[in-house]
Specification:
The structure is a single chain. The termini are far apart. β6 (119-122), α6 and β7 (145-148) form a beta-alpha-beta unit. The chain is an alpha/beta fold and 395 residues long. The chain is globular and about 60 Å long. It has three domains: 2-148, 3-Layer(aba) Sandwich (Rossmann fold), CATH 3.40.50.720; 152-265 and 275-305, no CATH class; 320-395, RNA polymerase sigma factor, region 2, helix turn helix motif (Rna Polymerase Sigma Factor, Chain: A, Orthogonal Bundle), CATH 1.10.1740. It has a seven-stranded parallel β-sheet with strand order 4-3-2-1-5-6-7, sandwiched between helices. Strands 9-8-10-11 form a four-stranded mixed β-sheet, with helices on one face. The protein has helices spanning 12-23, 39-49, 59-68, 81-89, 107-115, 125-140, 151-159, 195-198, 208-216, 218-231, 269-276, 291-294, 309-319, 323-339, 345-358, 366-387; strands at 2-7, 28-34, 53-56, 77-80, 96-99, 119-122, 145-148, 170-177, 238-242, 248-254, 259-263. The chain has 16 helices and eleven strands. It binds nicotinamide-adenine-dinucleotide and magnesium ion. Magnesium ion (MG) is lined by residues 150-152, 223.
């Protein structure tokens, strides 16, 4: 029986995880839930899953939630802010934390949960991008454990049967990428990409930040970094293939030359359930793959001129230390500005590149991460006016 703290319970991953909890109440229970501002949805989840503690973004949201659940007999404790997330992550009786928060907010709860020797089911890839070496050290020192939820990393984990000792037999990882909505668009049209177009992902339905990350391919760059720290594989042994149908979720190549892949129609239900049920295969409300109907599966090399994000991620990994944290923070701010209609689509990766160009890399410590994250966000603010090409029609 796993007793779960689900952080980001109202988001795309969080709500799908709760569907799985509802499907298997014999194996999964809830101790804590946490979200940002969607208090109405959280109130519904509280009634259904009866957590002992819930955390929300701030005091305003806490007040709103309190009035929404005023009639409940044994209401959960309501906490808020970054400390609230940590309290919810490490609530007594919790065995596993599903971190489905978006962005840098996910880092502290990941670290706190590992330090409390809990199992962390990690969707929040930003944790590993920001602090991969700190997380690696915690795991090496025997603090907690980490199970990937991101579909590519779950695919790799599934190909090695959930046994990380088998990584020594692995010669190469190949992450697949759909290529996003602009795979076939000419580069000279990228300036006029609208927010609406960028939010229409061809194969996956996800939260807004990762959807933009998928359109720029920054998501795949973050995933190269994530794979490097999760599996301890050198960056030059992690390749990316464009696979528009999103049916093969990644490949593992072994020393003997054989390759294993994990396949399904694009759905997060499988990787989420695989993590929640500790690798046990039970029905997941997913249609089985009909390969005859698909006919063929296509793969190609990514176009690094159109999508500089993969090279930026490799450069950040090579720079080491705080560089990947800077890439992450610059991206978060740039995506926010793009979603607000303030910068155009190509400016997202230009801003990341500028941050990497100007950052003085520090060794990764928790203080250095906080400083580098802040520095990168400020760098984006300062530089955005220079490259601001605001066009009211881009909204
Ligand atoms: P989402 O935007 O749908 O949900 C994010 C959740 O985090 C929401 O519950 C939101 O309320 C909460 N949240 C945001 N900021 C918060 C804060 N400061 N304090 C407390 N709660 C906060 O995002 P998502 O698409 O579910 O993605 C979550 C994570 O999973 C991301 O790191 C993403 O990269 C990763 N991921 C998502 C998918 C997917 O299919 N959606 C696939 C692979 C990986
Ligand atoms: Mg992914």
């Amino acid at each position: 029986m796993r007793t779960l703290s689900i952080l980001g319970s109202t988001g795309s991953i969080g709500t799908q995880a709760l569907e799985c909890v509802a499907r298997y109440p014999d194996s999964l229970g809830i101790s804590a839930l946490a979200c940002g501002s969607r208090t109405v949805r959280l109130a519904e989840q509280i009634r259904k899953f009866k957590p002992q503690i819930v955390s929300v973004r701030g005091p305003e949201e806490a007040k709103r939630l309190k009035s929404l659940i005023g009639d409940i007999k044994n209401p959960p404790e309501i906490v808020h802010g970054p400390e609230g997330l940590i309290k919810a992550a490490t609530w007594p009786g919790t065995t596993s934390v599903l971190n489905a928060l978006v962005g840098a907010a996910g880092l502290s709860p990941t670290l706190a949960a590992l330090r409390a020797n809990l199992e962390v089911l990690l969707a929040n890839k930003e944790s590993l991008v920001m602090a991969g070496s700190i997380i690696q050290k915690l795991l090496k020192d025997g603090h907690g454990s980490l199970v990937p939820v991101d579909s590519e990393h779950s695919a790799i984990f599934q190909c090695i049967g959930g046994d990380i000792s088998r990584l020594k037999e692995v010669s190469r990882l190949i992450l697949t990428a759909s290529g996003g909505p602009f795979r076939e668009m000419e580069i000279n049209e990228f300036d006029s990409i609208t927010v609406k177009q960028a939010l229409l992902h061809p194969t996956w339905k996800m939260g807004p930040k990762i959807t933009i990350d998928s359109a720029t391919l920054v998501n795949k760059g973050l995933e190269i970094i994530e794979a490097h720290y999760l599996f301890g594989i050198a960056p030059e042994k992690i390749d990316v293939l464009i696979h528009p149908a999103s049916i093969v979720h990644s490949f593992v190549e072994f020393h003997d030359g054989s390759m294993l892949a994990q396949m399904s129609y694009p759905t997060m239900q499988i990787p989420i359930q695989y993590a929640l049920l500790g690798g046990e295969r039970r029905p997941a409300n997913v249609s089985p793959l009909d390969l005859a109907r698909e006919g063929r599966l296509e793969f190609s090399e990514p176009d690094s001129e159109k999508f500089p994000a993969l090279d930026l991620a490799r450069r950040a990994l090579k720079l080491g230390g705080t560089a990947t944290c800077v890439l992450n923070a610059a991206n978060e701010e740039a995506v926010r500005l793009f979603l607000e209609g303030k910068i155009n689509f190509p400016s997202i990766t230009s801003l990341i590149e500028s941050a990497l160009d100007h950052h003085d890399v520090m060794e990764t410590t928790e203080t250095a991460i906080i400083n580098a994250d802040l520095w990168a966000r400020n760098h984006v603010f300062k530089n955005v006016s220079e490259i601001l090409q605001f066009n009211p029609d881009t909204k």
